[in-house]
Amino acid sequence: MTGASDCTSVKVRKFRGAGNETTIEDSSAVIVTEMNLTVLHRDVRASLPSCSPSFSEYLAVGHLVSRGLIRYGDRVVGLELLPGENVVRVRTERLVTESRRLGAGFSPAFDPADICGGLQELLRCSSLVAKTGAACAAGLCDHTGLLCWHEDIRCHHAVDKAVGHGFMDGVRLGDKALILTGKINSEIAEKAVSAGIPVLASRAFPTDLAVSIAERSRVTVIGFVGDNSLVVYCCPDKLAPVGDPRS
C-alpha cells in the first residue's frame, strides 16, 4: 500500500446561481480515498478506521510506537501485507544491547524560525491537503528542515505515519519537532508524549486537555504557526532564537 493513491476523481454536477439564473455543469472533482486498516503485532489487534491507503506500513509501525508497544531497542524484522485484506502484520525483535530511548537527549533548543520554516515546507509538500481540503499533513523536523512527512484523512493517522517513517529510518525522535496542519487535541499530545517527541507544533490551535497532557510531560506545545510568528502554550524552554543566551 506504499504506492496507493490517496485521492480519486469522480463525476459531479455543479449548480450555480438561483431560480431562472441557475446554471448546471457536468464536471469532475477530486475526493480523498478512504479505507479501514487492521494492525497485528504479537497478541495485539488494532483497528484503525478511516485512514488513507498510502504508506500503511508506516501507519502500522507508527501506531504501535505511539501506543508504547514498540520502543527504541526494538527492531522491525517483518512487515507483511496480507493479500486481499487491509491488514498489516508487524514483527519485531528486542535488541538487548540497545539502550536508547525515544525521548532521550533533547539538545539544543529550537529557533522559532526552524518551526515556522518546517511548517511552511510541510504546507508546500502537502498536495492532498491542497487538492481536497479534507486531509491533514504531519512531519518530523529539526534545525535542518523537514525530515519526513505524510498525509492522511485523519490527523492522528498522519502523525502515526510520520512517526513510523522516522522510526523505520532510525531517526532519534527525542530531539525532533512534530509539526502538523490540523489542531492539536489530546490524542495527538498523547502520541507525542508516548513517542518521546519534545516539541509539538501546528498552524492550528491546541485544546486545553492537549496542553495539560503535554505540560505534565514537559512537551512544548505551539499553535498558530505562521510565516514568522507562533504562540507557545506550555514549556517554552525548548525555544530560543539564534543568538539568545538560552540556546
> What fraction strand?
25-35%
Largest sheet: 6 strands, mixed
User: What is the rounded Rg?
Assistant: 20 Å
Number of strands: 12
User: What is the CATH superfamily of the domain at 112-238?
Assistant: Cytidine Deaminase, domain 2
The third-level CATH topology of the domain at 112-238 is: Cytidine Deaminase, domain 2
What is the N-to-C succession of helices and strands?
Answer: EEEEHEEHHEEHEHEHEE
Based on CA inertia axes, which overall geometry fits? globular
CATH architecture of the domain at 112-238: 3-Layer(aba) Sandwich
Specify the CATH class of the domain at 112-238: Alpha Beta
How far is the first residue's CA from the last residue's CA? 42 Å
What is the gist of this entry?
The protein has 247 residues and is an alpha/beta fold. The chain has a domain of 127 residues: Cytidine Deaminase, domain 2, CATH 3.40.140. It is built from six helices and twelve strands.
Structure notes:
The protein is 26% helix and 33% strand. With 247 residues, it is of the alpha/beta class. The strands form three sheets. It has a six-stranded mixed β-sheet, with helices on both faces. Strands 4-3-6-5 form a four-stranded mixed β-sheet, with helices on one face. The protein has a two-stranded antiparallel sheet with strand order 1-2.
Topology:
Elements: E1 7-16, E2 23-32, E3 35-41, E4 44-51, H1 56-66, E5 74-81, E6 87-94, H2 112-125, H3 127-132, E7 136-142, E8 145-152, H4 155-168, E9 177-180, H5 186-195, E10 199-202, H6 208-216, E11 220-223, E12 231-234
Parallel strand pairs: 3-6, 9-10, 10-11
Antiparallel strand pairs: 1-2, 3-4, 5-6, 7-8, 7-9, 11-12
